[in-house]
Design brief:
It holds the Pfam family Alpha_adaptinC2. This protein is of the alpha+beta class and 796 residues long. Helix content is 55%, strand content 9%.
Length: 796
């Protein structure tokens, strides 16, 4: 009986009892101590560790089992070491000697246990100590140990890439193996080496013929029971070889040329009826698109993805759509041939496939297919779920703006977009519609009639109602007369009462958003000057609607109502002038191109008599200041500095500088404070050849101070310091005194201004220089702007 009582409980019994426990207390009660068998108890401890209970106290017991001569003990001990130890554990060093001894054991299974443990828990120190033993095992005559040692070497070079060279000859020799397991691990090892070292990548590119030969033998060999998977010979090895070929052929035309034939053979000979064949074809596509392949191969790859789109398996269709999205820029015309199949995927029941198909459809839109694709996307937008509407609406608005065949089509498409998207339409679509309608005077009456119709049909669509209110306020006069759009459609005139009724609904309805009410109250006010007849009854209705929200709790709405009511009461004589239609809005694309003209010192108005050509020249000079100054203060540790494109947009400083232009007092003859450099923002830098040889700035005229010319020269003396020499020249015929220059940089930099060489600039070429030092104390790349103010006296 004593023997039976002390017999340790088996692991399967422990698992059965834990699973049968009804409560956490019963589960904890199952854990008991059974000293007679350490091996079984550690196995139970590992199971308890997998359940989430603390088991770190069993680390020493695992090391005792590792030191045991029995294989059953070592197996559990090494398993416990892999689960309970990591490279930060204090007992980590204790297991190193046991691993080293077992790696040289005569039994291959014990040596493989040591290799598996080393690969799982190796630290940099442990890897250096045992790297030689791993190299010796790679050269072993035992294929089983060579396979395990190659995987262990892969883990070691991940920890310590600098000892990679000792494994290069071993990895190269493994490619001559006949054993598929050893070949698979060798390819994995070489792939890791190539990813970690460009020099190793160039070395292994010479072995491309060997890899091609191995891959060709795989697809041309007959049936092998050991390696066949659903009619495909060792697909795992094929996939790994294809991945390695993709790494070796990337941006290398010579290596890619050697792969073209075998890639075509694999693509045409692979069985496609099984999922395992699809995995190989997928890797073939990625490899063809990842190397410098021939155009015919790229078409073949896209056609493979096109066949994937016809597969009934949703996972395969999703993979095809995702891959086509990645390769569409590589072979745009080949992907276009499958546009019909891609559009059909928009009707799939799976939401993830719908989203990928939608994104790919927008990538395929161009000037030739915009009409058909827009029709398909509008149909999709009408029927799709709410999670797709916002993205679809915004992307289609961008596509319509870019590829619209004519303005009438563009206007119709944007209105249909807003109608189909409803309240899911983002503000950018409304802004695009406002921009378009304001630019096209020929279609303003047509647009306001269409918007009045849409808003009257469905008032719940707030983006459409907001746009309708804005257009009624600006172009509402077109509603009171018949409209014929391009001689094709005729819209009858609307009465003022109908128009006011729509605006009243927008102002008073609980469905209206605050932004809609803001626009509506303004539209009501502007409509008072657009009426065909200034009837007192209509004006009274407008006055009542404008004053309706004078006591609103919303500050913006209340302010508008109060101010508009004040115009009716006290400024009736200037109401028409105040409420004139807005000028044509500047195009968003044009505003981006013209933005530099309003930036920096060159954009500061120097008087009403300034010529347009002078402003453009000053703007170009300001852009040059921004570009060159960027090269001076780009504290990049690389060998090249950065000079941005001088034509990129710069922030507009005119608004911030306007308050500085009125600084003169009546007792001083000082000129105005001028923002000489402006807020010189920068965009993405373009490389220059030498970071220390920085270009000088062209002279720039200081707007607002006649005859004053400024120039800036800089050099990088140290890695984190830039010296700037600012020179002011008086080209006028009057004396300038009390010269003062002030400058500022962002908080991340430090600026030191040295005293100027003088404070007087004599006429006809008198000059003053001043030195400044910009320091980057943190040593990080700093892209910033410099703002400067100059003040002189004696300017006429």
């Amino acid at each position: 009986k004593g023997i039976i009582a002390n017999t340790p409980k088996r692991l399967r019994d422990l698992i059965r009892e834990i699973r049968a426990a009804k409560t956490a207390a019963e589960e904890r009660a199952v854990k008991r101590h059974h000293p007679p068998s350490r091996c079984r108890n550690v196995a139970k401890l590992l199971y308890i560790h997998m359940l989430g209970y603390p088991a770190h106290f069993g680390q020493m017991e695992c090391l005792k089992l590792v030191a045991s001569p029995k294989f059953s003990d070592k197996r559990i001990g090494y398993l416990g070491a892999m689960l309970l130890l990591d490279e930060r554990a204090e007992v980590h060093l204790l297991v190193t000697n046991s691993v080293k001894n077992d790696m040289n054991h005569s039994t291959q299974y014990i040596a493989s246990l040591a290799l598996s443990t080393l690969g799982s828990i190796c630290s940099p120190e442990m890897s250096r100590d045992l790297a030689g033993e791993v190299q010796a095992l790679i050269k072993s005559n035992n294929a089983y140990l060579r396979k395990k040692a190659a995987l262990c070497a892969l883990r070691i070079i991940q920890k310590i890439p600098d000892i990679m060279e000792m494994y290069i000859p071993c990895a190269r020799s493994l490619l001559n193996e006949k054993n598929h397991g050893v070949l698979l691990t060798a390819v994995c090892l070489i792939s890791q080496m190539c990813q970690l070292s460009p020099e190793t990548l160039n070395h292994f590119r010479r072995l491309v013929p060997n890899l091609v030969r191995i891959l060709k033998n795989l697809i041309m060999s007959g049936f092998s029971q050991d390696h066949d998977v659903n009619g495909v010979s060792d697909p795992f090895l094929q996939v790994k070889i294809l991945q390695l070929l993709r790494i070796l052929g990337h941006q290398d035309s010579a290596a890619s040329e050697q792969m073209n034939d075998i890639l075509a053979q694999v693509a045409t000979n692979t069985e496609t009826s099984k999922n395992v064949g699809h995995s190989i074809l997928y890797e073939i596509v990625l490899t063809i698109m990842g190397i410098e392949s021939e155009s015919g191969l790229r078409v073949l790859a896209v056609n493979i993805l096109g066949r994937f789109l016809l597969n009934t398996d949703k996972n395969i269709r999703y993979v095809a759509l995702s891959t086509l999205q990645r390769v569409v820029q590589a072979d745009y015309n080949a992907v276009q041939r499958h546009r019909t199949t891609i559009v059909d995927c928009l009707r799939d029941t799976d939401a993830s496939i719908k989203r990928r198909a939608m994104e790919l459809c927008f990538s395929l839109i161009n000037g030739q297919n915009i009409r058909g694709m827009a029709k398909e996307m509008l149909s999709f937008l009408t029927d799709c779920g709410s999670e797709f509407k916002a993205d679809c609406c915004s992307n289609l608005a961008i596509a319509a703006e870019r590829y619209a065949p004519n303005k009438r089509w563009h206007v119709d498409t944007l209105l249909k977009l807003l109608a189909a998207a409803g309240n899911h339409a983002r503000d950018d679509v409304v802004v695009a519609a406002v921009q378009l309608i304001s630019e096209q005077s020929a279609y303003q009456a047509y647009a306001v009639h269409q918007l009045f119709y849409y808003a009257s049909q469905d008032f719940s669509q707030q983006p459409m109602v907001l746009l309708a209110c804005w257009c009624i306020g600006e172009y509402g006069g077109g509603l009171f007369s018949d409209c014929c759009a391009d001689g094709l459609e005729t819209y009858s005139a609307k009465s003022p009462e109908e128009v006011l009724g729509l605006l009243e609904q927008a102002l008073l309805s609980s469905q209206s958003r605050q932004s809609t009410k803001h626009v509506a109250v303004t539209a009501v006010m502007k409509l008072s000057t657009r009426l065909p007849h200034q009837e007192q009854q209509l004006l009274d209705s407008i006055r009542h609607l404008a004053a309706y929200h004078c006591t609103s709790s919303q500050l913006e709405l209340q302010q508008r109502s109060v101010e508009f009511s004040a115009i009716f009461r006290h400024h009736e004589n200037i109401r028409a002038a105040l409420l004139e239609p807005m000028p044509v809005m500047e195009s968003r694309a044009e505003s981006g191109r013209n933005l530099p003209a309003g930036s920096g010192a060159a954009a500061v108005a120097s008087g009403d008599s300034a010529e347009v050509g002078d402003e453009e020249a000053a703007a170009a000079a300001a852009a040059a200041v921004a570009a060159t100054f960027e090269s001076l203060i780009n504290f990049d540790d690389s060998s090249t500095g950065g000079v941005p494109n001088a034509t990129t947009g710069l922030p507009n400083a005119a608004t911030n500088s306007s308050s500085m232009l009125s600084t003169n007092n009546s007792n001083s003859v000082a000129g105005p404070l001028i923002d000489v450099f402006g807020d010189l923002g920068v965009s993405e830098p373009a490389p220059v050849s030498d970071a220390s040889a920085l270009p000088a700035l062209p002279p720039i005229a200081s707007a607002g101070i006649a005859g004053l010319q400024l120039s800036l020269v800089g050099s990088r003396q140290q890695s984190n310091n830039v010296d700037l020499i600012i020179r002011a020249v008086n080209l006028g015929d009057t004396n300038m005194t009390n010269f003062l220059l002030q400058a500022a940089v962002p908080k991340s930099l430090q600026l030191s201004m040295m005293p100027a060489s003088g404070d007087c600039l004599p006429p006809a070429g008198g000059s003053v220089t001043q030195k400044a030092v910009v320091t980057n104390p943190n040593g990080v790349s700093a892209l910033c702007g410099l703002k400067g103010l100059v003040r002189v006296e004696g300017v006429g």
